[in-house]
């Protein structure tokens, strides 16, 4: 599943994939793969992304469970 929340948060801060990658010590390709849903980042990487973008894990990575059956 694509991570549009991450992409929109990055765009909102006017940060390119390259800039975000440099901020957290990964490649631009890694950021692109996370945004496209082709890579499942570690918790450590998720936290670094959140810190760089001023967001929480809930803001960027947790799915809403409202539509799931109980």
**Percentage of residues in helical conformation:** 55-70%
Characterize the biggest β-sheet: none
> Secondary-structure element order, as H and E?
HHHHH
Poorly predicted regions are none
Number of strands: 0
Radius of gyration: 12 Å
Round the mean pLDDT to the nearest integer and report it: 90
The CATH topology turns out to be 434 Repressor (Amino-terminal Domain)
Anisotropy-based shape: globular
Annotation field: number of helices: 5
Distance between the termini: 22 Å
The CATH homologous superfamily corresponds to lambda repressor-like DNA-binding domains
Structural class: mainly alpha
Domain count? 1
**Beta-strand residue percentage:** under 5%
Return the CATH class: Mainly Alpha
The CATH architecture: Orthogonal Bundle
Description:
The structure is a single chain. This protein is mostly helical and 70 residues long. The protein has helices at 4-12, 17-24, 28-36, 43-53, 57-60. The protein has a single domain, classed as lambda repressor-like DNA-binding domains (434 Repressor (Amino-terminal Domain), Orthogonal Bundle), CATH 1.10.260.40. The longest helix is centred in the C-terminal third of the chain and has 11 residues, at 43-53. It starts with a helix and ends in a 10-residue tail after the last helix.
